[in-house]
Amino acid sequence: MDYKAIKGTKDILPGESYVWQDIENKARGVFSSFGYEEIRTPVIEETALFIKSVGENTDIVSKEMFSFVDRGERNISLRPEGTAPVVRAYIENNLDKISQFQKLYYMGPMFRAERPQAGRMRQFHQIGVEAIGSTHPALDAEVIRLLAAILDSVGIKDYSLKLNNLGCADDKKKLSGALKEALSDKEKALCDDCKKRVKLNPLRVLDCKNENCKTIIRGSFKAAKFLCEDCDAHFKEVLKYLDSLNIKYTIDPYIVRGLDYYTKTVFEVTHGSLGSQDAIGAGGRYDNLTSSMGGPAVGACGFALGLDRIMLALEKTSGEKAQKPRLDVFISTLGENACSKAFTILDALRSSGVSGDMDYEKKSLKAQMRTADRLGARFVLIIGEDELARGEAVLRNMATKEQASVKFEELVNTIKERAK
Ligand code: HAM
After folding, report:
1. Which atom of ligand 1 lies nearest, measured to the CA of 283?
2. CB 357 near ligand 1, within 6 Å
3. CB 243 within 8 A of CB 195
4. CATH class of this structure's domain 329-418
5. What is the pTM of this model?
6. For the segment 314-369, what is each residue's pLDDT rounded down to a tens digit?
7. Are 411 and 352 in contact (CB under 8 A)?
8. Whose CA is nearest to atom 14 of ligand 1?
9. CATH topology (fold) of 14-168+228-316
10. Which residue, by CA, sits nearest to atom 31 of ligand 1?
11. Domain limits, the chain
């Protein structure tokens, strides 16, 4: 074979695409029950959008974007995440003029040039929400409840939720400054990434995965004491709302998230089956993003779930997966005349709402029955020369193996009735 899928991307084949559809359908159901509406934004955006929102010194923007200059000399990137595009669309389309508060969801591919490994792809898929236009702490709790409701609906169990409060922009500045100071004489002992982070984006040292960095940072620094009264009160309210729904969580002062736009509440949901890439979803509040991008000063909160990781967790825990959709009827034919007749019968069946298919490969009857089996057909309709002459077809129930002859003109009604 001359061509292969690009490293870190994969084909989702019919053997599993129905499971993806099932998860997406369940998520859609949950979204509408929470009052969220779908938004679809382009896969390509101006590179500057992500520099401004996600942050120039984040790993995503500095190392992982698929960026290019197009034929019109524009700097374009494949979207690495969904929040910035949705906020851009909110502002550009004046959605706040329709209603300042918008509850939006999206599903689709995102792109990050990370080193591929289990659970880490270069094209991956997110199901996400952005609730833009409110600073109410109940919204943080609703968004977290929504994430949990989706995981519950698709059958993911035993996940853990960790929360932290980053505070407002001022609090984050103080925290960054304190980190810089606390680590100033320990820089040499930190990993290469953290050495850079201390200079450019000190908060990120807090969630470094390197064990040595963890020990140094956690030993020399205790987080959480830089919160202003407002941010402290907001977080306490969020916890109260979560408690009122009996949502279990732990507070982890080292969660800072890899995107700069967060303020106040941040959270991560992990699943033990996933190994080192164990974050199945994450999100938080981003009260300054909309105004920093030239829009109204409104609070906002959201999350994204990794669909590829949901699939992995379902496989690893043999969670209840969707059943492959079955075909109502498969028509087996012998000879060209039977094929022509079957073609019109099939069309009539499909028009009446019965799902069906037929043989297009001139296979033997036995091989056609195997195809019917593979497609999970509940009934097989057999039409050969004899049946044509009699104006009827043999209808076989694949579960009971019962067979009956049915007149052509009665086929649609009979099958419709039996396939109910
Ligand atoms: P994120 O933490 O970068 O947040 O990504 C969210 C989820 O996407 C992760 O928890 C993970 O499940 C999945 N994910 C991320 N990168 C990869 C990858 N390379 N391969 C497979 N799965 C991956 C965001 O993207 C924010 N926009 C979430 C958000 C929405 N915050 C507020 N609103």
Report:
1. 31
2. no
3. no
4. alpha beta
5. 0.95
6. 998 876 678 888 999 999 999 999 999 999 999 999 999 999 999 999 999 999 99
7. no
8. 306
9. BirA Bifunctional Protein; domain 2 (3.30.930)
10. 283
11. 14-168+228-316, 329-418
